[in-house]
Amino acid sequence: MRTRVWTERRKALGNLIPGLVWAIPTVAGLVVMVLQGNLLGPGLWLLIAGTASGWLATGVFGLWDNARMREELRGLLKARGENLDNSHFVGFATPRYTGLLDAHEDVGFLILKADRLRFIGENRIVEVQKSDIVQVRLRPSIHTMIGLGGWVSVEGQVQGTPVRVSFEPRERSTMFGNARRRRLLRTLIEEWWRGLRRSAP
Questions:
Q1: Count of structural domains within the chain
Q2: Mean pLDDT of all residues in 182-197
Q3: Which of 29, 48, 110, 120 allows an S-S link to 43, with CB 3.0 to 4.6 Å?
Q4: Are residues 55 and 116 located together in one domain of the fold?
Q5: Beta-strand relationship, 133-139 and 151-158
Q6: Are 88 and 120 spatial neighbours (Cβ–Cβ below 8 Å)?
Q7: What is the reported pLDDT for 199?
Q8: Helix orientation angle between 8-36 and 42-61, rounded to the nearest 10 degrees
Q9: Per-residue pLDDT averaged across 7-32, rounded?
């Protein structure tokens, strides 16, 4: 099935734009270092500026077109008859997934039903029964290495087989905004699992 929302173009731009912002001053700094033969002069400051600007650009542009994706996917799924009340827009991944362009295998809406956790993406639906969940914990992702997020991991067992699904908040337009919501999402899922929070209809 053709993907209309979580496209390769959007994944690529979330890396390309921060990469360019990082590369320009960084390459300039290396050139200055070589031409001047000085590792501690202006070239070093350009390298520092490149690192800082690359990090800021990742925080701002790393979730390229995120708000538009959320609304596009919401409209698409509602047209299919999905009820997205009390849902949370998230990135999703399974343990086997390795992506060159993005850590998120898919994007979609997380809904905490009375008896199960339900993820609805453009082309897939994943459900985990509440009774099969063993723990909810934080796990690092590639974003954690630069202080811009990480996974909320829901782990359990189904007929003796370990299962794990991981989510990362994408409600906000920037990685800065979503990084602060990770612990809130973990608490939300954990309270739902322990019966301390009302479920979605």
A1: 2
A2: 90
A3: 29
A4: no
A5: antiparallel
A6: no
A7: 58
A8: 170
A9: 92
Which 3 state secondary structure label does DSSP give 139?
strand
Helical H segments across the chain, by residue range: 8-36, 42-61, 66-79, 175-179, 182-193
Do 50 and 83 lie in one domain? The reply is: no
Going by the DSSP 8-state scheme, the letter that residue 115 receives in this structure is S
Predicted confidence at residue 195, as pLDDT, reads 85
- Asked whether residue 200 is domain-assigned, the answer is no
For residues 23 and 115, state if they share a domain.
no
Pairing between β-strand 125-129 and β-strand 133-139 as defined by DSSP bridges: unpaired
Q: State pTM to two decimals.
A: 0.89
Whole domain around residue 71: which residue ranges?
66-193
Tell whether 147 and 113 lie within a shared domain: yes
Extract the tokens encoding 55.
Answer: 């990090």
- pLDDT at residue 32 is higher than 90: yes
